[in-house]
Amino acid sequence: MSESVAEIQSRIDSISADIIRQKEVLANLERSKSAAQRQLNTIRDPVARLPLEISSDIFARCLSPWPQTRTRVHDAPMLLMNICNGWTDIALSTPALWTAVHLHEPLAHLLVAWIKRAGSHALSISLPIEVTDEISAIMRRHAHQLRDLKMYQDISFVAAWGPFPLLKTLTIAGGEQFTSIINPVRCSASATLGMLLLCPNLVECTFDKAVFQQDYSGEMIVHAHMQHLEFGKDLSWSDDSLLRNLCLPGLETLSIPFLDLRHDDLLQFSSRSSPPLQKLVLRHVLRWSLHEMEELLSILSTLAHFELVRPQGVAAPNNFLTILTNSPHLLPNLSTIIFQDCNVTVSYPNLLSALLARRTQLQIVHITGSGCTPFPSEDITVQLCQLVAEGMSIHVGTIEQNYI
Question: Which Gene3D superfamilies match (predicted)?
């Protein structure tokens, strides 16, 4: 007798139930196998058998030198957590792996997780994003832990998080997505100096793509630990009012772009600070006389690197070369000369005289201009080539082509 429809359906339902039960048994067996495999891997794993201090040190050496890569799943420390439970435990027990975070998106939960894993360690944080109120609140709570900070916000916005007692490196940058020539990140002198007051241990400070307006009338600020100070590369309408209110006795590198930089202001700043300045980069400036430049260089005896970027007029480069030739007692430690993106023609005879006068001390001489920069004469080229043969690095011409 054939089965009824109801009987066939009942049999199908029974078989389906058996299949579901078998799948559950198989899934449990897979989980048990995975757990046993992880346990076996942990026993066999040489890293897991090491003392935590050693395995942590090994993991720390896996970190990229570029913090912006560390939040990616295919780079340490995130990659280390995807190997096995043992490695995850080691990574989470190593705060040094989580001290640097570069937030690509405004993900507050990611920032919180990173900071929590870092514990009480000093933090290096880069935020190339529009900062939300939630992220701002997090930064305010942990400002006391910040060692390095890079921001793309108005400086007054950042200063509201302070003070920053541990901060060593500060960069206020204006990314292309947030600023433009028409609408740069604006920083007044009072806000900028106020920020410096909140960072008593600052060593390196960079203000990029910002306009500094003279509005500060407070007392002189002495920043004893500052070694590197750089103002934005792309400025063409700033003033030098900040220098008039700063004393930086430990400064080793100074880069300034101000079109309106006056000889007296830089001279007074240098005299007041008496810094062990080793590198001076002047952008877009100068219309100083030979006497004014000589007066400034006379108090910068420690200078090893002198750089002019887009100098205005013929005076600055050629006056500097004249001083090198005629004043051998000045700049005894000078080893590097860079004239970058010159829109004027440097006198080749003047250049050769300076290099011959300082041939025993100069190591690098790079002078680049536009595509219409003329070639030196044959006799000057021969003598410059001789200096190259003696070990001096000389690049004269355009960025793409060295005439020597």
Answer: Ribonuclease Inhibitor
* DSSP assignments along 242-299, one per residue: GGGGEE-TT--EEEE--TT--HHHHHHHHHHH-----EEEEES-----HHHHHHHHTT
- The CA distances from residue 340 to 290, 306, 325, 344, 397, in Å, are 20, 11, 21, 11, 10
State the pairing for strand pair 393-398/305-309.
unpaired
SS3 content of the chain, % helix, strand, coil (to 5): 40, 20, 40
> For residues 347 and 318, what is the distance between their CA atoms, to the nearest angstrom?
7
DSSP β-bridge partners for residue 188? 213
SS3 171: strand
Which one, of 383, 266, 268, 279, lies nearest residue 336 by Cα? 279
> What is the spatial distance between Cα 117 and Cα 94, in angstroms, rounded to a whole number?
8
- 142-277 topology per CATH: 3.80.10
Q: Which tens digit of pLDDT belongs to each residue from 119-134? A: 999 999 998 877 889 9
Characterize 169-188 residue by residue with b for buried, 16 or more Cβ atoms within 10 angstroms of its Cβ, and e for exposed: bbbbbbeeebbeeeebbbbb
Residue 364's nearest CA partner among 322, 280, 297, 307 is 307
* Number of neighbours of residue 22 by Cβ within 10 angstroms: 10
Domain ranges of the chain: 17-49, 51-125, 142-277, 284-404
* pTM metric for this prediction: 0.79
**pLDDT per residue as tens digits for the range 293-338:** 899 899 999 999 999 888 766 678 888 999 999 999 999 999 999 9
